[in-house]
Design brief:
binds 3-hydroxypyruvic acid, hydroxypyruvate isomerase activity, Sugar_Epim/Isomerase, 8 strands, pyruvate, alpha/beta, eight-stranded parallel beta barrel, TIM Barrel, Xyl_isomerase-like_TIM-brl, isomerase, single chain
């Protein structure tokens, strides 16, 4: 399948692609594959406050490769792994999230990244959902204010229930509800939906209908094909149609390639035409 997309704002997610390389080698590998934009989950799953030298080394690697970071996750616990965020997880994880907020926002500002993704966090057995939701709103508002201070938006992402059974945001509507609550709490209007078409499709929704309805609320889009979370063309989604729907909805932000390569990551971009 060959796809050209008016918005060539494709960026490579370096937390799922090029992972066969050390973190600091990935920006150059993405640049060698023709990309100038990249995105990352929080790169230190065990450390919400990494040493400045590690932050500087990543900043230097991004700069040396001529790549710009278009989106960065806040600390989200063990991701990849069992966790799906820390904003709604009481106790130490909430404290780690809050300790990370200014670190992540400051790093984003230092590399020109203007989108920060705060994964909501899994439900915790024995903790009332209302308690988690109240904590999440407090923490997400705190993160939105920090993002605003550096000229960034706060992204709220729905995942799919099949792969994240304890994660409470499993459709666009539930993520947008949180976006609206955060905006109401801060008055800043800098919260946006992270529209991940892979998770939408894995949730069984009509992806075309969700794009038509929610693309206008999106501050960032991520894609992978379904089934298999591979490159476009490896599954059943019609990306030419979905990209035209994003265009028609006026979405002109980044489109993150958040899929798994079948073999070397450098060979995972053949579906792109005319870049
Ligand atoms: O786990 C995922 O699929 C994500 O998008 C994390 O940001």
């Amino acid at each position: 399948m060959e796809v050209s997309f008016r918005n060539t704002e494709f960026d490579v997610n370096l937390s799922i692609l090029f992972t066969e390389l050390p973190l600091l080698a990935r920006p150059a590998a993405a640049a060698a594959a023709g990309f100038t934009k990249v995105e990352l989950w929080w790169p230190w799953p065990d450390d919400p406050e990494p040493p400045e030298a590690e932050l500087a080394a990543l900043r230097d690697a991004l700069d040396a490769a001529g790549t710009r970071l278009t989106a960065l996750n806040f600390y989200a616990g063990r991701l990849p792994g069992p966790d799906r965020g820390a904003a709604s997880v009481p106790g130490e994880e909430s404290a780690r999230f809050r300790a990370n907020v200014d670190v992540a926002a400051g790093f984003a500002a230092s590399v020109g990244c203007r989108a920060l993704n705060a994964l909501y966090g899994n439900r915790v057995d024995g903790v009332a959902p209302g308690v988690q939701d109240a904590l999440a709103l407090e923490n997400l508002a705190y993160a939105a204010r920090a993002a605003d201070r550096v000229g960034a938006i706060l992204l709220i992402e729905a995942l799919n229930a099949a792969e994240s059974p304890s994660y409470p945001l499993t459709d666009a509507a539930s993520a947008v509800e949180i976006v609206d609550k955060v905006d109401a709490a801060t008055g800043l209007g800098n919260a946006r939906l992270l529209l991940d078409l892979y998770h939408v499709a894995m949730g069984g929704a009509d992806v075309r209908e969700v794009v038509d309805r929610y693309a206008g609320r999106a501050g960032h889009v991520q894609i992978a094909d379904v089934p298999g979370r591979g490159a476009p063309g490896t599954g059943a989604l019609d990306f030419a149609d979905l990209f035209s729907r994003l265009d028609a909805a006026g979405y002109d932000g980044p489109v993150g390639l958040e899929y798994r390569a079948d073999g070397p990551s450098a060979n995972a971009f053949g579906w792109l035409a005319g870049r």
